[in-house]
Amino acid sequence: MNATMRRVVIGATAVSMALSIAACGKAGDDKDSDSGSSSSSGNKSIGLLLPDSVTARYEKFDKPYFDAKVKALCSDCKLEYANAAADSAKQAQQVSSMVTKGVKVIVISAQDSAAIKSSIQAAVDKGVKVVAYDRLAQGPVSAYVSFDNVKVGELQGQALLDSLGAKATPKAKVVMINGDDADPNAGQFKEGAHKALDGKVDIAYEQSGLWKDTVAAQKMSAAITQLGAKNIAGVYAANDGMAGGIANTLKGAKISGIPLTGQDAELAGIQRIVAGTQSSTVYKAFKPEAEAAAQLAVDLLEGKDIKALATETLTSGSGDKVPSQLLTPVSVTKANINDTVVKDGLYTVADICTAEYAAACKTAGLQ
Fold this sequence. Notes:
Radius of gyration: 26 Å
Oligomer: single chain
Number of strands: 12
């Protein structure tokens, strides 16, 4: 074989080997992409998407607790975060952005559980695992972590009845200001509250407050106009944010001493309970919920079985059967503030008992 011929053969062999190696590498890459596995690619990224910044808990508690737990479980995991600012279209874009960035597991508290369905489907089609957080999103989610939301509503309703005492009769007129209908939790809270209240009081006015204090205040004002200030025995508010708006409306109408419920154990809600302008809230411990979501996310990232964590199965609005982990909520009144939110370190007595509430705290035994 002459020199020219040898060079041609050697060159052809080298090209053939290079193409074979490239083909093997490409096949491996495709496999990782299809499976969503991060083990071969080294991509260990987890995304957290929260619905709004108005509800105090998300930025102050859920996000830092989630981040800390993920880091404890997976020191080399990369975290991505976005807040929808109560905009469902924005949240859909955030899901798409995280998929583009190569996030392998998305934990999402849906701003609109139905509207986010197509975005979740698109993410799953790209091999991303999705965990529904606090609100059961529609679509093919891998897991859901929250509290027993029907139980939350029952606790709220029962707390209202307990506060009414002997005044809890079928003739007692109660106002109900529910959460946003786009949030599946709102329907479950409402279901539980009705379970506790129906037949025991007269739910004389019922509207959605959209999780907004301003809207809840407007609805309360309309209820007062319709029913008469002297005829309202109590108010069910689905969360503390709305309870704040309602409390201001009641004060403006010179209505005092009637029960007003809430939820989320926000600091302002706890302070209103101390002051007597709100009768109860529901404490859903943020830390165990956020940590449970982090554990599910890391386990899914690492391909582990989650059956031991998600021991229940719920059906979402899209008909999907979702492995779920449900935690237990607790009703909070003036009598057990010390044994709940203070004991768990959510707030200190100093946080609650600012100068404005010092006298009320002393009466409540918090000083």
